Amino acid sequence: MEHWVVVLLATCFVLLVSILLTAPWPVDHVLLESVPGGARVTVPSGYTWVTPAWIPVPERGIRVTLEHPDRASVDTTLVPGTGVVRVFLPYLFRLLITSDPPGAKVLFDGVYAGRTPCEATTGVPGIHILGFDCGDSIFYEDTLCLLINRPDTVFRRLPVALDHDMVLLPPSDSAGRFAVSRFEVTNGDFCGYLRYLEPAPVIDSTARWGRTPLVESLFPVDYTVPFHVDSSGRWAVNAGMEDHPVAGVSPAAAGGYCEWLTENRGGDTLVFRLPTPAEWEAAYLAGGRGPWPWGGTVPSDGMLNLSDVNEVFLARHPDIDDGFPETAPVGTYPPNGWGLYDMAGNLWEYCVPEDRADVIRARGGSWLSSMDDCRFDAVLYPDTTLGYPFIGFRVFGILARD
């Protein structure tokens, strides 16, 4: 029994000597401070302190980690002879990002952060870009300023895709919440209105191009319109023009179409009408600053329909080829961030003033326009008793029950 005790004591002695010879015994103490104070300090052995703290430092130095609830953690190495070490802990912004409706993909400075509601973390104060991919070609982008750990929550009301190619836009300072059609009203759309107004048209041979008095009143333009009476005696669209935007209508005819659309499609949800200038600009810019629907990039091939090499009257931009001499089918070119097509180019679009003393105007440019006329701030003042082959319209919808 005594033999085993001697062996055990000898083993313990050897282990103790080994530890004494290999352990990094401190040769100095360093005062570790942090800004802000109160950071938790951890060393590899597991010992912890709270700043400010005197940290024992071995001859070859020691690695420490500083952690603070409101700041990003920092790793540093303390070496003997330093005296005092002050560590500045970077800001740490933790954001809870929510939206209405939820479920949108969030991009924080271009990096995927999850779907709302979700959290994003950054250590960089200042301006950040917050993007929401809502699906259906709808992308909402906004800037966010982070200072002094605020804000810690972000909420955004997002555009929402509705039935019948309508998009419900988020409210803005200049305009309330409203819906807008993704597309300009097409010949196919307008033909339904013609059939409603004139179910059995009788061609008047004395009118221009054999129009009926009704069509003459709706299209007060010295320009052929893409409608004819088919073999069944009903109005029809000329072949290949169904998806082109309707042009040449008067503002009164455009307003009548909106009233008809409300009765036939709006139901209890939407009341359709022409937009105000503020509403139209909000839809055009899609939360951006312009001057075009996609931002500041100068238009080029495949971006919009304007006066290009194919346009035979003026050809203002012979270096651009948009593929069409006049109008293009709606949706031919990329949409803006809110999924709205042809906000610039194709056809100017009527806007009605909020003040009845003001005048109707048209916005957005057309197939006959220069690129400057397609900017968000360009305005055309048409004679409202006439129609023009380069002016059409887009319907906006006000929520009857929000």
Walk me through what this model shows.
Helix content is 16%, strand content 30%. The protein has 402 residues and is an alpha+beta fold. It has three domains: 2-88, Immunoglobulin-like (Sandwich); 93-157, Immunoglobulin-like; 159-402, Alpha-Beta Complex (paralog of FGE (formylglycine-generating enzyme)), CATH 3.90.1580.10. Mean pLDDT is 90; it is low at 16-23. It has five helices and 25 strands.
How much is the average pLDDT? 90
Count of separate structural domains: 3
Under the CATH scheme, which class of the largest domain?
A: Alpha Beta
Q: State the shape.
A: elongated
The number of helical segments is: 5
**If classified by CATH, what would the architecture of the largest domain be?**
Alpha-Beta Complex
**Biggest sheet, strands in spatial order?**
15-16-17-25-20
What series of H and E elements makes up the topology? Answer: HEEEEEEEEEEEEEEEEEHHEEHEHEEEEE
CATH homologous superfamily caption of the largest domain: paralog of FGE (formylglycine-generating enzyme)
Question: Would you report the number of β strands?
Answer: 25
Structural Rg: 35 Å
Query: How is the biggest beta sheet arranged?
Result: 5 strands, antiparallel
Q: Which fold does the CATH topology of the largest domain refer to?
A: paralog of FGE (formylglycine-generating enzyme)
Give the low-pLDDT segments.
16-23
Task: Give the class from helix and strand content and strand pairing.
Answer: alpha+beta
